[in-house]
Amino acid sequence: MSARVAYYAGHHGRGHVTRAAAVLAHVRAQATLFSSAEPPALAPGVAFVRLPADDPRDAADRPAAGPLHYAPVGHPGLRQRMARMAAWAAEGPGVLVADVSAEVAVLGRLLSLPVVAVRQHGARWDDGHLLAYRLATCLLAPYPASLAEPDAPAWVCAKTDYTGGFSRFDGRERPAEVDRQSVVVMGGGGAEGPGSAAAWTMADLAAAARATPDWRWRVLGASAPSGGPSNLEGLGWRDDPFPELARAGVVVTHGGHNSVMEAAAAGRPLVAVPAPRPFDEQLHKARALDRVGAAVAVDEWPRPADWPGVLARAGALDPARLAALADGSGARRAAAVLDRLAEAASEA
Fold first, then answer.
1. How far is Cα 267 from Cα 171, in angstroms, rounded to an integer?
2. DSSP label of 301
3. What distance in Å separates the CA atoms of residue 228 and residue 202, rounded to the nearest whole number?
4. What angle do CA 294, 300, 193 make, to 5 degrees?
5. Strand, coil or helix: what is 217?
6. Where is 128: in which H helix or E strand?
7. What is the C-alpha to C-alpha distance for residues 236 and 141, in angstroms, rounded to an integer?
8. Does residue 5 have a cis bond before it (omega within 30 degrees)?
């Protein structure tokens, strides 16, 4: 039987499917991506199965504390999602990646599959996460061990493969010249997922620009507001924002995994402004980056008067510390873990 990998990618935001595409591009086994999200371009040979939506139908379906994060009774979408993954498992041995879902990890284990649970930052020592971690054959952390949660149980760390960070920009050549008085803002202006909120607004950006007249603020994915300061420019949507990031004096982004690792690939000083997310994921990641000297982290959007100092602190960082978190081989290391498990499962 051929080695096979099924990768479940959550549909809140773009981070999970983007990460899945990066890893599956290097997997040798037959690979299938399962998700409700629209996937980015996938490597040739990677199959995609769109899962039915399982959005809450009413207040009774909202996630609640307990051994499972989200498993409402009587939800047809949830039932069909699980059935499609079970049908894949019925075709033969393979490995199932849960990125991220405690319920999918449990499903995979009950289907007699080796399960790889992807770890994320945040306060994830609740019953649901710990159940998934215990049932998993191994855990995959798409970041280096230096960013691990300080309070992670020893058995969780021992079970984890720390691959280092990776992004769609791995291997890109950085420009020789940078604009040291420019701030490039990426992401954070919109919410992703239930209970989420934006990290900042255009009004916040305008106030920050007014407070730092010696800096040019350039915003990816948005247009500058009418009546805004002259040093605030909206760059609109860019399919490839890497050139803007790599020439920035300072990059400002939220604490989402992909945004942080894209900034790392660009190799420029970073200010991380976490947006509210379940389990305080972005807050924990931002603080971890600050702890290792890879970014300036703030718990919330700074007051206008604080921005000159924040930018000065960021400009004094050694960009190599952030760049070192994503050395260009993280996705290959993650793929190697999946191939090893898939090959072992096919020979069992």
1. 12
2. P
3. 9
4. 95
5. strand
6. helix 127-135
7. 32
8. no
What's the Cα-to-Cα distance from 93 to each of 32, 107, 343, 346, 347, rounded to whole Å?
13, 14, 10, 6, 9
Question: Residue 195 has what pLDDT?
Answer: 41
> Which tokens sit at 305?
């008067």
Q: To which residue do tokens 């990066």 refer?
A: 22
Match 């609740």 to its residue by tokens. 126
Query: Tens of pLDDT along 194-211?
Result: 444 578 999 999 999 999
Return the sign of the alpha-carbon dihedral for residues 153, 154, 160, 164.
positive
**Cβ atoms of 171 and 182 closer than 8 Å:** no
**Confidence (pLDDT) at 197:** 59
DSSP for 241-267 reads: -HHHHHTEEEEEE-S-HHHHHHHHHHT
Cα–Cα distances in Å, from 211 out to 105, 186, 217? 48, 19, 11
Tokens describing residue 100: 């991220």
325 is written with which tokens?
């978190």
pLDDT value, residue 302: 97
Task: Name residue 22's amino acid.
Answer: A
Which helix (H) or strand (E) covers residue 50, if one does? strand 47-50
Q: 298 and 137 in contact (C-beta within 8 Å)?
A: no
- Residue 178 CB burial class (10 angstroms; 0-12, 13-18, ≥19): middle
- Compute the CA torsion angle 64, 70, 75, 81 (nearest 10 deg): 180
Measure the CA–CA gap between 164 and 133, rounded to whole angstroms.
19
This prediction's pTM: 0.92
> In b/e form, how buried is each residue of 20-41, taking b as 16+ CB within 10 angstroms?
bbbbbbbbebbbbbbbbbebee
Would you state the pLDDT for residue 340?
97
Q: pLDDT, tens digit, for every residue of 7-18?
A: 999 988 788 999
Read off the amino acid at residue 261: M
Residues of the chain with pLDDT under 70: 65, 188-197
Here the tokens at position 157 are: 């760390």
User: In the 8-state DSSP scheme, what is residue 145?
Assistant: G
